[in-house]
Amino acid sequence: MATEKKRPRGLKSSAKANKKAKVEEASTEIPENAQTIVIEKEVEEGDELGEVAALLESAIEKLEENPVEALALLRGTIHESDQILRKWKSEESLPAFFYYNYGVALYELGRLMEDEEFEPYLDAAEERLEDGLKQLKEDDKELYSKAHLALCKVWFAKAASQVSEDDTVSDLAIRALDAADKIVDELPSKVVVELADIVQNHGALYSSLESRNKFITWAKKTLEKILKEEPNNAQALYVLGLCKLQVAHYYLDNLNEEEEEEEEKIKLSEEEEKAYEAIIESKKNLESARKAFLEQDKLMPQVLADLAEVHLNEANLVLGEERQNKVYEQAINAIKEAQKLIDEKKLDYELPEGLIAFLAEYEEEQ
């Protein structure tokens, strides 16, 4: 494929762009099968706190595959929690796990409500989670870690709106990172990977390498520690690949205009070399993640979309048209594999426009 080299400035990580599935307008009522879900989870009749916990558990399970149903379940969790709080007459406070469930439901609902302001949900979630910590028993280490994990998510979400033009890292972001550091060793690996993903996504919001690296370096070290124990942890490999892709983005975004306008190159600049090195490292991790996900039959199109982005960035840095075209073909294969996966599994996922446009251009020239 003969094509002019172009820096893919418009391409950003599809994992970041498509982090949340688009949620259609859903009823505020709990779905008809919600009570069945509660019964299946063996909640005793009349145990309102247990029913709320079961509703939230069901909602969390459905967040990725069925966000519309998850939305209704989260609303149900919050509605029931509010009712319990209003009618609670006992002199004893409600237990810490009640406030934890309430706070998590508020946070997750805010994430899904794309047409509404996130901040009010975050404020309410933070208040409930902190209420729960006040009631927490000293020996309940598991709930302590879970509550602080939830607060980390809330604080990082709030800190995202505080990123300023001068790229100063806010006190809240530092607070969130410190809290993450204190609990990370107490969390299961699956949750640690989720936390590392949140941290690296926050780092990507900054323009300066110093500010960005504060978060991405933490995420990389955390993921590498997991991979020493679990070398085939697909999600850890994937997020580590995204960390390295964020580093590449920094160098690509800061190439000077002369470098971008130069049509034929015989040598990469220092910045391009650094970007290329990060891209190759990212590709290695993403390809390993793809293989691991395939073995588990859990491969999702966003993994392939990110891999395609990496191939495109690599192609725009390699020297020589023949080498470049080979890498472009790898990008095309990843895009087509993602499309096939979406069609076969009938997934509610849209490939980034930049990838779709590139595929269309490629096919026109064949």
Topology:
Blueprint: H1 14-17, H2 34-40, H3 48-62, H4 67-87, H5 96-112, H6 119-135, H7 141-160, H8 171-183, H9 189-203, H10 209-229, H11 234-253, H12 257-261, H13 270-295, H14 301-315, H15 321-345, H16 353-364
Coiled coil: 252-289
GO biological process, one term: positive regulation of SREBP signaling pathway
Family: Belongs to the ETT1 family.
Explain how this protein is built.
- Residues 1-28 are annotated as: Disordered.
- Residues 252-289 form a coiled coil.
- Belongs to the ETT1 family.
- Residues 1-10 have a biased composition (Basic residues).
- The protein has 366 residues and is an all-alpha fold.
- It has a domain at 26-271: Serine Threonine Protein Phosphatase 5, Tetratricopeptide repeat (Alpha Horseshoe), CATH 1.25.40.
- It has helices at 14-17, 34-40, 48-62, 67-87, 96-112, 119-135, 141-160, 171-183, 189-203, 209-229, 234-253, 257-261, 270-295, 301-315, 321-345, 353-364.
- Helix 4 packs antiparallel against helix 5 (96-112), helix 6 runs antiparallel to helix 7 and helix 11 packs antiparallel against helix 13 (270-295).
- The radius of gyration is 23 Å and the shape is globular.
- The chain starts with 13 loop residues before the first helix and ends with a helix.
